[in-house]
Amino acid sequence: MTSTGESGKAARRDSLADLLGGRRGALDATAPPVAFGLVWLLPGHSIGWAAAAACAVALVIAGWRVATGGKATAVLGSLAAVAAAALVVLYTGRAEDFFLIRLLSNVASGLAWAVSVLVRWPLLGVVVGAVLGQKARWRRDPDLVRAYGRASWVWVLGQYTLRSAVFALLWWSGSVWWLTVAQVALSWPLIAAVLAASAVVLHRSLPADHPGIRHPRVEVSATGQA
C-alpha cells in the first residue's frame, strides 16, 4: 500500500508538460507561418502565393486534427488566426505583416496573464485546474494560489514578453526571414523551457508538506467543514 506521504510526493511530481501538452499547439502555430516565409523567399517574393501556402498548410493540419479527434473550437481558432493573418498581409502588401497578428496576440496574452496574477486568478491555475477537473477548487488553497501566481510570471516574462520583444523588433525591421526563424525558435523549444521553469517555480513555491497540485488543501471553517 502506498503511504499518504509517498502519494503526495508523486502528485507533486506531476509534469506540467504532460498536463498541458504543447507540441500540437506549437505545430499548428508554426507550420503556416513557416510555409508563408519559405514561399515568399522564393524568387518573385509573391505575397499571394505565400498567403495561399500558409492557408493550405493550415487546412491540412485542421483536417488532420479533426480526423484524429481534435477539438473543433481549437481547430477553428487556428484556422481563423491564419486566415486573418493572410487577409492582413494581402491588404497591406507588406510580407512582415503576416506576423503582425501573432505579435499582437502575444502582447495581449502577456497582459492577460499579468492581470490574472494581480487579481489572484493566475491563468496557469485556471488552465491546470480545468485540465484536472478541479474547476475553481484550487483557489480555496492559499498556497496553490500563491504558487500558481509565481509560476504564471514565468509565462508572462519568459514567453509572452520575450516573444513580443523579438517579434516587434523583427517586424519593425521588416525581416521576413528572421521572423520565420523566430517563429520556429520561439514555439515548442520556448514552450518546453517555460513549462519546465514554471513547474520548478510552482513546486518549490509550495510548502514541503503540501500534497501537490492534484490535491488542493481547502481551508477548514470554524464548524470543521471543508
From TrEMBL:
The chain crosses the membrane at residues 47-67, 74-91, 111-132, 153-172, 178-202. InterPro entries: UCP010219. The keyword Lipid metabolism does not apply. It comes from the Bacteria. Keywords: Membrane, Transmembrane, Transmembrane helix. It holds the Pfam family DUF3159. This is DUF3159 domain-containing protein. It comes from Actinokineospora guangxiensis.
